Amino acid sequence: MVPGRVHQRRLTAAIAGALFAALPLLTAAAQNPAPPGGGVGALGRVEPQSGLIEVGAGPANWLLGLQVKVGDKVKKGQVLAYLDTYPIEAAARDEAAARLAEAQARLKAQNELSQAQTDQADKKGDQQARIAKANADLARAGIAIDSLSKAVAVANARLAAATVTAPIDGTILAIQLHPGETIGARPILTMGDVTKMAVRAEVYETDIPRVKIGQSATMSSGALPKPLTGHVVEIGRMVSRNSIFSTDPTARVDGRVVPVRIDIDDPSPVTELSNLTVDVVIAAPPAAKPAPAQAAGK
To answer: Distance between CA 191 and CA 276 in Å, rounded?
Structure first.
């Protein structure tokens, strides 16, 4: 073979190998170009630090009634909604409570009668027999009280299961279901604690080694009067496909990203903008330059 052609083929192979080795870096750069001022750029979504909590119930139920509306502030344990079984369970609880109250009234009357019988026995000298009978009557009454108390506890538990309550202090952000609709696998509503907000940024896997806890960040959007500031508080441990997409039609939709949580310093501009997409810039050191490709041997 002509030596010149051999050299040309080796050179072509070397260039192809160098381009293949640099392909991941070139792809990442195309997906997520470095911000003009440096750092790591990413897309993010605004959400409460508590997360967006989807409140639901058993799939076999349908929604009887809602007690809240969007924007309401609620406390942990506050009733949000009632399920279709609530009226039946409430009636069963009331019946069990009435039986218990009746038994307690009988027990009180039995106590008074037993005391009177004991006092009478003292006068007749037959104290032991009278006391034994009174104690036996009280024991039987006590068994009934215990059984009815357990029935009331069960009824209260079933009633609680037919009631939807707030898991945390927070704000109602969205209503997904309305009275009369079957719940199934859908949430009834979404809520969160908007007094503390964060951004869930999706950082490309090639940039994640540069991101560290404590780094400052800025978040901007056309919906905001000025950029937000914050700092990195959590870096994910799993790589997955991106779920936040740019409006750029040429942007890739199958990027590999790691979630990074950034707590917002002043959440007031976004307390009513959960799920807002923002452009994120994390103040990270510049990426290391790739080593030059080795020239192929002649």
So the answer is: 15
